[in-house]
Design a protein that fits this description.
The structure holds two protein chains of two kinds. Chain A is mainly β. Helix content of chain A is 0%, strand content 50%. In chain A, strands 2, 4, 5, 6, 9, 10 and 11 form a seven-stranded mixed β-sheet that branches. Chain B is mostly beta strands. In chain B, the strands form three sheets. In chain B, strands 2, 5, 6, 10, 11 and 12 form a six-stranded mixed β-sheet that branches. Chain B has a four-stranded antiparallel β-sheet with strand order 3-9-8-7, with no helix packed on it. In chain B, strands 1-4 form a two-stranded antiparallel ribbon. The relative contact order of chain B is 0.33. Classes of the chains: A mainly beta, B mainly beta. At the A-B interface, β4, β5 and β9 of A face β5 and β6 of B.
Chain lengths: 113, 115
């Protein structure tokens, strides 16, 4: 079945550590996105990529980094510079055309302990 | 710039009653509109979308939405809700031109269906 796979589902991190969230898609989509979800704030765009080897900052990119070495993969690293990383992280992909919807993974819940 | 306002953060409703979840948007250009549903600890799933044509759009699970350009609204409705409709609902807007960062989401409405 085609879809988006995020792993792990739950992740715990100690303060000061970097952690990488995985996102893989087999939909042959060009565009991929990372969103952060906090209660009552909807989804906020962290980074997006329209094509392999290219990515752009979203609205809240500080403290995060990404790479897009393969079309299928768009990992997100939460660095120690991110002051409040505890949140639900959602990865999505789309064809990149504005009249098509985004498809979402099941999310990763990151907790800093 | 575009923005989306979901007017109600929480909507409780009894089972088999009708429900309307409100969404207003602001944009200086024409837009595409979407409603997504999110069940607890899950990703988002598309309910329906408006691109052009008929202003009444039908989606999955018996939901429908009406695009009103003059009021810049895209309210979601269901004539009779079920317990299984309990979830968070997000309205989103995108512009017909521009880059892949097209979606702007509202802050969400938690629909709780009571027995």
């Amino acid at each position: 079945d085609g879809g988006i796979t995020q792993s792990p589902k739950y992740l715990f991190r100690k303060e000061g550590q970097n952690v990488t969230l995985s996102c893989e898609q087999n939909l042959n989509h060009d565009a991929m996105y990372w969103y952060r979800q906090d209660p009552g704030q909807g989804l906020r765009l962290i980074y997006y990529s329209q094509i392999v080897n290219d990515f752009q900052k979203g609205d809240i990119a500080e403290g995060y980094s990404v790479s897009r070495e393969k079309k299928e993969s768009f990992p997100l690293t939460v660095t120690s510079a991110q002051k409040n990383p505890t949140a639900f992280y959602l990865c999505a992909s789309s064809t990149g055309h504005v009249n098509t919807e985004a498809f979402f993974g099941q999310g990763t819940r990151l907790t800093v302990v | 710039a575009q923005s989306v306002t979901q007017l109600d953060s929480q909507v409780p409703v009894f089972e088999e009653a009708p429900v309307e979840l409100r969404c207003n948007y602001s944009s200086s250009v024409s837009v595409y509109l979407f409603w997504y549903v999110q069940y607890p600890n899950q990703g988002l799933q598309l309910l329906l979308k408006y691109l052009s044509g008929s202003t009444l759009v039908k989606g999955i699970n018996g939901f429908e939405a009406e695009f009103n350009k003059s009021q810049t609204s895209f309210h979601l409705r269901k004539p009779s809700v079920h317990i299984s409709d309990t979830a968070e609902y997000f309205c989103a807007v995108s512009r017909p031109s521009g880059s892949a960062r097209q979606l702007t989401f509202g802050s969400g409405t938690q629909l709780t269906v009571l027995p």
